[in-house]
Amino acid sequence: MSSTPQKKQPYPFWLGGTVDSPLDLTKVRLQASGDKRMIESIQKTVRTAGVRGLFDGISGTWLRQMSYSMCRFWAYDESKKMLGAGKDAPAWKLAAAGSMAGGIAGLVGNPGEIVMVRLQGDFAKAPEKRFNYKHCFDALFRMVREEGPSSLARGVGPNVFRAVLMNASQLASYDFFKAELLKTKYFEDNIMCHFTASFAAGTVATTVCSPADVLKSRIMNASGPGSSSTIGVIRASLQNEGAMFMFKGWLPAWSRLQPTTILIFLTLEQLKNGVDWARGRGFTVL
């Protein structure tokens, strides 16, 4: 007597949020300030603020991760269900699901993104131009009080655009590369396959997202009337630095995103295996 296989339950929405501050901080400072090279920027930070300076704005990083990162994995899984993007879905369906997830997560995580960028970029500025926030909650409170509630939406356009690009390239390309690798005789669904697919996904995502990432950092790190215009930032940057400004900070961005992407997907796959193991033994996982 044959039995109908049970439909696989969805994984908990918080799984992606459980999964490198110095490189992230260096990337923001290269994008938003006058720093020119990654090593020089790191040396400048250590020289002026000590090793602890590499972790400036860590509370902003945590706020951003707990809002944007957790939301995007949940939204990606839900978007794949809506579009019917299963195991062997074509690349365009995965990219569409990633784009939908990025749009949602970009909106939800925008305040945390601003706080992270400002906290990380503050000590790269002249003392009279610093925000001097104590931590992420002080930053949120003072932004609303001093700049109005609309300040929480500063840079939301390029941030959402960047989030769409990031999730369409990182999440979707990981699923695509993983599926393609499993079609060959050289890979099985194990850590080597996950590592290779995530390495490729990290490189694709860094390159695709670089222009929007630079614009996002420059707009969010600015303040005052007229400083939130995307067109104005593009015009000024092109005039002063040329078209390659869009890839400023690519190396530290890649150096940060590559290990992060690998760790995210290796950890996520193991967490999924853990959830499957627990459910197979009758445990309930929220």
Automatic annotation (TrEMBL):
One Gene Ontology term, aspect cellular component: membrane
Gene3D superfamilies with a match to the protein in the record: Mitochondrial carrier domain
Highest taxon in the source lineage: Eukaryota
Keywords attached to this entry: Membrane, Repeat, Transmembrane, Transmembrane helix, Transport
Membrane topology: Multi-pass membrane protein
InterPro entries: MCP_dom_sf (IPR023395), MCP_transmembrane (IPR018108), Mito_Metabolite_Transporter (IPR050391)
Residue spans of the Solcar repeats: 8-82, 89-180, 189-274
Subcellular location, record wording: Membrane
Similarity section: Belongs to the mitochondrial carrier (TC 2.A.29) family.
Name of the protein: Mitochondrial dicarboxylate transporter
Source species: Favolaschia claudopus
